[in-house]
Specification:
Blueprint lengths: L2 H16 L33 H11 L2 H6 L3 E3 L25 E3 L19 H18 L7 E5 L15 H7 L2 H18 L3 E6 L19 H16 L4 E7 L21 H8 L1 H10 L3 E4 L3 E2 L2 E2 L4 H11 L5 E4 L3 H7 L7 H11 L11 H12 L5 H17 L14 H4 L3 H14 L1 E5 L13 E5 L23 H9 L5 E5 L21 H15 L3 E7 L20 H9 L5 E6 L7 H6 L2 E4 L7 H9 L13 E2 L35 E3 L10 E8 L3 E2 L5 E9 L5 E11 L10 E10 L4 E8 L1 H4 L1 E2 L5 E2 L3 E8 L7 E7 L2
Parallel strand pairs: 1-2, 2-3, 3-4, 4-5, 5-6, 6-9, 11-12, 11-13, 13-14, 14-15, 19-27
Antiparallel strand pairs: 7-8, 10-15, 16-17, 18-20, 20-23, 21-22, 21-26, 24-25, 26-27
Helix pairs in contact: 2-14, 5-16, 6-7, 6-16, 7-9, 11-12, 12-13, 17-21
Length: 805
């Protein structure tokens, strides 16, 4: 078909969508207000000049019990629960004729769910029109016209067909670049706005303390201060577009017993003080400082009480202490788990009562809304739920909708702008920068990297992740974007450099007996021996081997915890055979969690941690290997040497990871391996940096004072590079046991060779407080030590100050 004809059909289709409406009375739309309840007059809730609290009170007073109940439930969008892509006549008989709290993932064409594929997801303007049509139906066909909140995921970039892709959150955490995270958040929020979404489920603030857990890849790392700083910027970026940011997963979700995920997402073994100082710290900071409008409650319990029905977590802490003013949505099926998994409710109806009384606002699950609304209405009719409780939960939902402007500007005004504002070239450039800055150089013996193309002309690319693609596309991020594999990225780079690149897979990610082979070793099969032999032969014919190893999306993610942290399958066996070629080997890791690569670290000269990059992974890795840019990523999570050391994290309590005396009254030799394989904050560069001239503006402060710390940083190498300056604080003597030291400041700076800059940090009272023996947050008098360097294990500068009454 000629392009001109295609354009005419496209315009016609858009026009048909634009004017497609179920309006019963067009007179409800006025110049500066909408007659949502169709009564011919401007009610208080329809008046934008009235205070939000007054508007909510007015609307609540007009709502029936059923309409209130409907504002506490999610409807999953097309291809999940909803069967229609656009409003249909049958909707007038559906339960949502009384309204809904939100519709999740509507028309986003998620690649992981073929039934959700929709022609309305792209072009982007077509999606904006389609959501406008759905919103118009709720405005025009429900009695009070209450708009819906269109929610969507966004931790890897917006979860929409061909939106701007971002790497996994563990990659984003590895950038240690708060300015870049703010920009990435702005992209997610902007794209959501122009596509018609009003609420983004991001960022994840879970603190990963057990690398066996499958969702480490979806977190920023293990340190609460680092997570809080990154998460705060993500929220500010998303919400600057007038879009809600919903934090995940509140609370104490990321440490299931033994790192076991799936049906064992309960029973986190975390002490009360540790819970507050580690797992709640990012939520507390981000809620107070960035004011997100949403929170997602988690599946798990804490100390026997399910979080999704806990008044302590949802009201006392979140609303009263932290000052949260948004609404709380359950993770899918978290409400049901109160009765079905935790067994603290007699039945589903009782679970609903407990959740609403506890403070949960909106129930989410992959089933029709009436499966929740029917027992909820029965509960109310039986007098099992106080109407004041329901009114308060609905009030909190409506308040967010008013704050988002859904009662003043419920529709995307100019739908055509979506094609100009979503996934622009500038956005793609930012994505490239995030990917590049997330790569961590773990080892570089004798400066093997960057690769000298004059020395290494014949290169073998091998390993199971060299041709992998699926890890670049998350169920929680964009779909259908172009993907360049690491193999193809290296071949493309070598094309104009007179380099010869060969490829063979060599080994699968896992063997046929995996995961049992992690505990019961098996011999190599004939097929494995043959495949490895081919790799060794090609390696012997090459000058350099690039081995791309790690984990695929099948070994990493939700419900995919592991019992071991070595390279899965027979990958190490293959590396051992490749080493026999005596050719230099660069190990490129593609993985979603720390791996205990002890043999690899000891015997291979160069190791690169790339985590789960997005679709540009091949070009990003190739450019780094050949020196087109200088790696600057730092580990946001430490690597243990063995599963037997877990939990082994930073920060750590005194002597919690102590060695063994070996000699003396309590020493009879050594019986265990100690120490980190790679510590928190660690990452190498192609250049070197020097820290000097640490100075404090005060040596003595009061508990309410701030302190300024300044340090000079110089690039003493021969290449331009970026360094992450890290500041750690130690409370020398305290009334309760504190951590040996903890991160309390960091900044990423770029320096030319020889360039020097002064970096300034502010130490605030909140950075020094502890939860004392009376469970009160306080800054205690005493001495504090300051350490500055480029990782938790490399801190060349040190000073101290005193806090006095």
């Amino acid at each position: 078909m000629p392009c001109h004809s295609k354009r005419l059909l496209l315009v016609a289709a858009f026009s048909a969508l634009q004017f497609y409406s179920f309006a019963q009375d067009k007179a409800i739309y006025h110049q500066d207000w909408i007659d949502f309840n169709k009564n011919g007059k401007k009610d208080v809730y329809e008046d934008s000049k009235q205070p939000i609290a007054s508007r909510v009170d007015d609307l609540l007073s007009q709502m029936t019990t059923q309409e209130k109940a409907n504002q506490t439930v999610t409807l999953y969008g097309y291809g999940r629960v909803l069967k229609d892509e656009q409003p249909a006549a049958a909707w007038d008989k559906e339960i949502w004729k009384h309204g809904l709290a939100n519709i999740d993932e509507m028309l986003n064409s998620l690649a992981y769910n073929k039934s959700a594929k929709s022609s309305f997801s792209y072009p982007f303007s077509r999606h904006a029109v389609a959501l406008n049509n759905v919103q118009k139906w709720f405005i025009e066909h429900t009695r009070l016209g209450i708009p819906v909140d269109f929610t969507n995921e966004g931790i890897h970039g917006l979860n929409h067909d061909r939106a701007t892709p971002l790497p996994a959150p563990i990659n984003i955490g590895s950038t240690w670049n708060t300015k870049l995270v703010r920009t990435a958040g702005e992209i997610v929020g902007r794209e959501a706005k122009y596509l018609g979404y009003t609420n983004v489920y991001a960022p994840i603030l879970d603190v990963s303390r057990d690398p066996r857990w499958g969702r480490v890849v979806e977190t920023y790392g293990e340190n609460p201060f680092h997570i809080a700083e990154m998460g705060k910027q993500a929220v500010l970026g998303i919400q600057q577009n007038g879009i809600a940011s919903t934090l995940k997963h509140y609370a104490v979700y990321s440490v299931p017993k033994g790192g076991r995920d799936g049906n064992a997402r309960t029973d986190p073994h975390v002490g009360f003080r540790e819970m507050h100082e580690l797992h709640l710290y990012p939520f507390k900071r981000v809620v107070k400082e960035a004011k997100p409008l949403g929170i997602m409650s988690s599946y798990n319990d804490y100390d026997g009480v399910p979080v999704s029905s806990s008044k302590y977590f949802l009201q006392d802490l979140l609303r009263k202490d932290y000052g949260f003013e948004g609404y709380i949505v359950s993770d899918s099926e978290a409400l049901e788990f109160i009765s079905s998994k935790h067994h603290v409710a007699t039945d589903y109806k009782d679970a609903i009562r407990q959740a609403l009384e506890g403070g949960l606002n909106v129930r989410t699950n992959f089933d029709p809304p009436n499966t929740y609304l029917t027992p909820l209405m029965e509960l109310i009719d039986e007098g099992g739920l106080d109407m004041n409780v329901l009114n308060q939960r609905v009030r909190e939902v409506l308040t967010v909708k008013f704050k988002l402007g859904l009662f003043d500007h419920p529709l995307v005004d100019n739908t055509n702008l979506a094609d100009q504002k979503v996934h622009t070239q500038a956005d793609e450039n930012i994505s490239l920068q995030v990917n590049r800055e997330s790569i961590v150089l773990l080892k570089n013996e004798q400066d093997l990297l960057p690769i000298d193309i004059n020395k290494y002309k014949r290169i073998l690319v091998t390993g199971p992740m060299a041709e992998a693609t699926n890890y670049t596309t998350s169920r929680y991020g964009p779909s259908n974007n172009p993907i360049t594999t690491i193999k193809d990225g290296i071949i493309a780079y070598a094309k104009d450099k007179a380099l010869q690149v060969n490829y063979t897979k060599g080994v699968d990610v896992v063997d046929k007996n995996w995961p049992e082979s992690e505990i019961i070793p098996t011999d190599l099969s004939n097929e494995e021996i043959e495949s490895m032999t081919t790799g060794v032969r090609l390696g012997q014919e090459s000058d350099l081997i690039i081995a791309v190893m790690g984990e695929s999306e099948r070994e990493v993610g939700e419900s995919r915890s592991r019992s071991d942290l070595n390279l899965p399958g027979k990958q190490r066996d293959y590396l051992m055979k490749l080493k026999e070629t005596r050719k230099p080997i660069i190990l490129v890791l593609v993985n979603g969690r720390p791996l205990s690569i002890n043999w690899e670290n000891k015997y291979l000269p160069a190791i690169v941690e790339s985590w789960f990059l997005s679709g540009q992974s091949g070009h990003v890795v190739a450019d780094m290997l050949f020196g087109e840019y200088n790696p600057s990523g730092k580990l946001p999570i430490s690597f243990p040497k063995s599963v037997g050391q877990i939990e082994m994290n930073f920060p750590t309590k005194p002597a919690a990871q102590a060695g063994q005396p070996g000699v003396g009254p309590n020493g009879w030799g050594n019986s265990r391996v100690v120490g980190f394989l790679y510590p928190f904050g660690y990452g190498l560069s192609y250049t070197d940096f020097q820290f000097s001239n640490l100075r404090l503006n005060k040596k003595q402060i009061r508990p309410t004072d701030s302190l300024t710390v300044t340090v000079d940083v110089q690039n003493i190498g021969k290449r331009k590079g970026a360094e992450v300056v890290q500041l750690y604080v130690k409370d020398v003597v305290s009334s309760v046991t504190t951590y040996e030291m903890d991160l309390r400041g960091f900044e990423k700076i770029e320096l030319n060779p020889g360039e020097k800059k002064s970096i300034q940090f502010s130490i605030l009272p909140v950075h020094l407080e502890l939860l004392d023996q009376y469970n009160k947050w306080t800054v205690e008098p005493g001495r504090f030590e300051i350490f500055i360097g480029n990782s938790s294990a490399n801190l060349p500068l040190r000073d101290s100050f005193d806090v006095v009454n």
